[in-house]
Amino acid sequence: MAAGKSIRKHRLATVAAWAVAASVVLGTAVAGGTASASASAAGGAKPTIVLEHGAFADASSWAGVIKRLQAKGYPVVAPADPLRGPAADAAVLSSVIKHIPGPKILVGHSYGGSVISAAGANDPQVKALVYVAAFLPAPGETALELTGKFPGSTLGAALDPVTYALPGGAATTDLYIRADAFAHQFAADVPAGQAALMAATQRPITQSALQEPATVAAWQTTPSWDVVTTQDLNIPEAAQLFMARRAHAHVTEVAASHSVAVSRPGIVAQVIEEAARATR
């Protein structure tokens, strides 16, 4: 594996129409992107790779990974994650998945791992799951609980909460990472200029999403791969390894920040390819 000395390899709803309109493959709507993806998948070539971003990011965080996968002939779809809660977000992702015929590989970064764990459950066309610095919750667990299960996360002190009223008088709180803390907290190994752009374009996650328990776990029945980031300040390495080993995932450890898909897209793409080849 071309990962250098830093890698050690082990075994280890919102409305569906909104999802179609909002989903992007590097600027291409899912309605258009899945048409070519579907043709490839239906033709028996390669599975469609579905990339789900997490909190404080957007679909562009997969740009380097998408470029490499497309160069290898994989159809790719990177939908927008609403970041409103695992169940609601999984319903949106499921609508995208069902729109694509043929086999799929689901890939989730960070909170996106919770979403693919729900959306991929009981779907025979989902052939593998790839977690990238991600949550693999068991039923009843929350992202917040798993983050605090082991020491090492400094995310709480870096957050900038924004509370606003909802129709009917209720209120909700969106969480951002402070601009002055973003690079260190989220993207320490990303060039400073790029990290500044990521901070400016980050998408918030609702606080309640991190406190919502999982109800299903696709990794209990579907083969999984996991990119574990050893310099992660959001989800501690120990927490990632705990979840990966529990899932009997094929693990690749990388000396990288939480933004490994941005800083090390070649490694992430390689692990996704391994999952795709193993399940064909």
TrEMBL record:
Domain of life: Bacteria
Residues spanning the signal sequence: 1-31
Residues in AB hydrolase-1 domain copies: 49-270
PANTHER family with a match to the protein in the record: AB HYDROLASE-1 DOMAIN-CONTAINING PROTEIN-RELATED, ESTERASE_LIPASE_THIOESTERASE DOMAIN-CONTAINING PROTEIN
InterPro entries named among the record's database cross-references: AB_hydrolase_1, AB_hydrolase_fold, Sec-Metab_Biosynth_Hydrolase
Alphabetical UniProt keywords: Hydrolase, Signal
Pfam families assigned to the protein according to its UniProt record, in alphabetical order: Abhydrolase_6
Lineage of the organism: Bacteria, Bacillati, Actinomycetota, Actinomycetes, Kitasatosporales
Protein name: Alpha/beta hydrolase
Species this chain originates from: Kitasatospora kazusensis
GO molecular function: hydrolase activity
